[in-house]
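Record format v2
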Amino acid sequence: MSQTKPYRVSHLDALEAESIFVMREVMAEFERPVLLFSGGKDSIVMLRLAEKAFAPARIPFPVMHIDTGHNFAEVLEYRDRRVASLGLNLVVASVQEAIDTGLVRELPDGTRNRIQTPVLLAAVEKYRFDALFGGARRDEEKARAKERMFSFRDEFGQWDPKNQRPELWALYNGRHHPGESIRVFPLSNWTELDVWHYIAKENIPLPSIYYAHDREVVERNGMFYAVNEFIRLRDGETSEVRRVRYRTVGDASQTAAVLSEADTVEKVIDEVAATRITERGATRGDDKVSEAAMEDRKREGYF
Amino acid sequence: MSQAVLEPDAASSRGMDLLRFATAGSVDDGKSTLIGRLLFDTKTIFEDQLEAVESASASRGDEYTNLALLTDGLRAEREQGITIDVAYRYFATPRRKFIIADTPGHIQYTRNMVTGASTADLALILVDARKGLVEQSRRHAFLTSLLRVPHLVLCVNKMDLVDWSQEVFDRIADEFTSFAAKLDAPDLSIIPISALNGDNIASRSENTPWYEGPSLLHHLEHVHIASDRNLVDVRFPVQYVIRPQSTTVTDYRGYAGQVASGILKPGDDVMVLPSGLTSTISSIETADGPVAEAFPPMSVTVRLADEIDISRGDMICRPHNAPTPAQDVEAMICWMDESAPLRVGGKYSIKHTTRSARAVVRGLQYRLDVNTLHRDEAAGELKLNEIGRVKLRTTVPLLADEYRRNRTTGGFILIDESTNRTVGAGMIIEAR
């Protein structure tokens, strides 16, 4: 059959169409979906996709922020602005509150990534969410390369990599018993660069910390940490003001910045395209602990 | 040897396009090395990943940087040196973005290869030049054709270990070509490579002056996939009905979904299945505004001129080109469940496009030996990783096409109603 027109779409359009399909599928098959929104760029892109999937109707599910208490002020402001402009229902699950009530215990090193998990699971139970949209991408880390678009979790929120459901064509199996849930990753097939290209194409505003700015930082193991209420100078350390941007936005006590002059989305794309270090490797102290750190955290119910 | 069709560079203005391919072959054939090499040569591997692999290789006592460690993500896999599950990898060149479904080669993982092949535009099968075709290569080729992957590439690897012998390569190529001819196989290319040294991967190698085809990467970048899609039969499975409850948007009713095949345009006469009611497309909408046409893989919202009752699981088609709603389905099924086999009389949930129903197994005509293609008509069940021809009866009619004509409306999954696990994948041969 000869076509006069190519009838082709760009790879970004194909990824967008797939993500929208996945979101609509969840809305059609689940009772109580929720979108995990951290104010990070991946969840921001996810929110844009959700807008597109259900337009002209509003996004038909709430968003939830697992608040470690270690936030960048710019990100919290952004979160509240976006939620208000889209008329969304925001659920905040607070790690600090969970520490205060004794649900979780503060770790000796003060980091809160690991103790987020019980807080997340308690919120899922409280609100009876049965599908949780997460912004994780398969290109982020080795264990995530094996993650499904629809990832089944038992009543303890656990991921069993040896017992995953096969996923064929675009036929997603979201069936589960009460108490169990499905984590859904609409950005599975996106890479860091795809996310940035999409942000540029859609002209999506981001929290300012994603772009180059001057900040007081301290260098540790080749990473630059902002000096703030969560990160204090240790003996023998000195801080300096450097021009940096964040590649990921996580727990403010563990997320490092990279030296950068990129103050526009185009310049960020150029840097991302040229960089030789993965985004988690450059910025996340928490993934470096062991070769299987992410796998272990996912088994416990982490995203 | 087929040569990839060169397309005009129209894509550059639209950005890159997307190609999904599945890799099959075993660790011994150098599959992980090949993938590592593709990632390395396209500058996809980052320094911290390479450092991690180098230090892990050293601590294991490997004599060289074991690129397989890049791709074996789970602890059990690293410990056992095998790949358990489908892993997805990503790389891009200025022309194309690639998604690799990296599937293990061993027979106990047939289901993973079937899974990876289900969405692939192209399958890449790897053989060791010293061993030539083995049972596994034939099995991979068969599964590729069963899943109707449109393009197939056979990489004859480790050519450096047979002194770059054209004779060895030709013998393997001829044998594979004649085997593939029996399979109703897709477009086939055969490339002599050394994954370890990078010959004919990113650029053509001087070691194979007798080989006139493209390097692997060049082939992947240029293989013509635009014609693979079915743009003839309009099939739009309704996924979700959008009805805003708001004061600003009133009386809005849109049918959201992803175009499975064909081209839809405003003004087109359409028929809705299973009701058979007809209407006209009044508009095709996206969040970015209305579009003049919709084709695969676009996710859109279709609005019709008439108020008719349509819900999820229905399908919008053209009046003179529509599947016949059918409750009796014959299909090839790959069984994927460890705990219980498929048996005649078994009842399962079935998911086909956006429609869910229940199905009972009415008959098992034969079990197919995936290595010899022998049909065992005396078989009474299908166990994990076995494939057979099955008759099903469904509780509600499916709106199905033959899988060979339409991979989206011809495929289905079976779900165990007590465990909720996905237990089978089916390719429809006939629906009545």
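Confidence is low (pLDDT under 50) at residues 1-13 of chain B.
The domain at 325-431 of chain B is CATH 2.40.30.10 (Elongation Factor Tu (Ef-tu); domain 3).
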